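Work Package 4 report. The design task specified in the project plan requires that, given a folded chain encoded as structure tokens, an amino acid be chosen for each position. We show below one input record used in the internal validation round.
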């Protein structure tokens, strides 16, 4: 099964209330989730804008490159509209 689009809550949000444990996916976890879902497009959400995000676009990009999945990764900015197309 192939998911067309995976919207993943990433950014490794952390607060002292949970001893610094990530409340959203780390970059490596997001790459693993994208691979498990076999998604054609992967859009990381909640990755910038607040101090509690400990990982941003650069670390996500690196994790996806290490997993050989950079071609599936799509970053959006707040308010941005995009169209994802693929052959087939």
């Amino acid at each position: 099964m192939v998911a067309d689009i995976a919207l993943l809550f990433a950014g490794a949000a952390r607060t002292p209330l949970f001893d610094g444990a990530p409340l959203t996916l780390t970059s490596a976890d997001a790459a693993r989730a994208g691979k498990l879902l076999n998604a054609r497009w992967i859009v990381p959400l909640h990755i910038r804008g607040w101090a509690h995000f400990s990982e941003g676009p650069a670390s996500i990009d690196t994790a996806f490159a290490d997993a050989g999945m950079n071609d599936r990764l799509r970053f959006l900015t707040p308010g941005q509209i995009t169209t994802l197309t693929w052959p087939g």
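The mean pLDDT is 85. Validation will be extended to a larger panel in the next phase.
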